[in-house]
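Sorry, explain these tokens?

***
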Amino acid sequence: MQYDQAVKVLEEADCLADQATVETAIGRMAAAITASIGKKNPLVFCVMNGGLIFCGQLLTKLLFPLEVGYLHATRYGRETTGGDLEWKALFQADVEGRTVLLVDDILDEGVTLLALVDACRSRGATEVLTAVLVDKQHDRKACPGYQADFTGLAIADRFVFGYGLDYDGIWRNAPGIYAVKGL
């Protein structure tokens, strides 16, 4: 995408949640996560690439001992609709007998997140919890009614970017959650 086109995407986008709103949501999630697993010596996995910005900010608010790793599985690549799950980076740490927290940018249909939860459980994790910055509100979840254990913001069923979410590979760094004009 050309620079001018990329700038236009942000200029024309609808801001669904500004930076202050996102930061407040992250703080609220951190408090809930601390209350839930703060004394369990958890293993926190950032789901790349989308979870990077959100996870980094969340981690600075989790004031208890934990280990951090990352996973990379995607259904989107640079597409706007999901396809088959592709594993790009598997576990770097043993999850057996551990409490695991998976941190991702978005819960859309939930296919990727459910696959990651199943992968942790099949490797012997004692408890697997999920945290997502945004939950897209629609009735196309992989399992009806599926929700993350910790959710920052509920958003409209639109194509969104910012705070780790991308549009055609760009604007993960946008300081809020934005909806692409017309999508």
